[in-house]
Write a structure and sequence with these properties.
- With 115 residues, this protein is an alpha+beta fold.
- The chain has one domain (3-106): RRM (RNA recognition motif) domain (Alpha-Beta Plaits, 2-Layer Sandwich).
- It contains three helices and eight strands; from the N terminus they run αβαβαββββββ.
- It has helices spanning 3-6, 14-18, 35-46; strands spanning 7-10, 24-29, 50-58, 62-65, 68-71, 75-82, 90-92, 98-100.
- The protein has a four-stranded antiparallel sheet. Strands 4-5 form a two-stranded antiparallel sheet.
- Strand 4 and strand 5 form a beta hairpin.
- The protein is elongated, with a radius of gyration of 18 Å.
């Protein structure tokens, strides 16, 4: 799946806004997407470092219009924790030499609140 197919929309509620200070962002995602798929899509779309992904399957609500009873569709919610203080990472390369990661990560998702 493409990253655009995995991430459907941000979820903006009071509870999700409280998590923004801790680097937790909430998204409506494709029901078939796994945690690994979600993490890769967020990293590719927003250029941030994902630390953790929690997913919740949300059941649809029962709705009634007059005599007819129906149900809203089920959906999947993902709470993504990003690294709010990305630093330069180093690792040991071949031959025991230390190598720095050259990729730069952002510390927040600016597009989340429509900025």
């Amino acid at each position: 799946m493409k990253p655009e197919e995995i991430i459907i929309a941000p979820v903006v509620t009071e509870k999700s806004n409280d998590g923004l200070q801790e680097g937790k962002y909430t998204f409506k995602v494709n029901k078939k997407a796994t945690k690994v798929d979600i993490a890769r899509a967020i990293e590719k779309l927003f250029e941030v470092k994902v630390l953790k992904v929690n997913t919740i399957n949300v059941d649809g609500k029962k709705k009634r219009v007059g005599y007819h009873v129906g149900k809203t569709p089920d959906w999947k919610k993902a709470i993504v924790t990003i690294d709010t203080n990305p630093g330069e990472a180093t690792y040991l390369a071949k031959g025991g030499k230390e190598t720095k990661v050259t990729k730069k990560f952002k510390d927040s998702i600016d597009e989340f609140m429509g900025a």
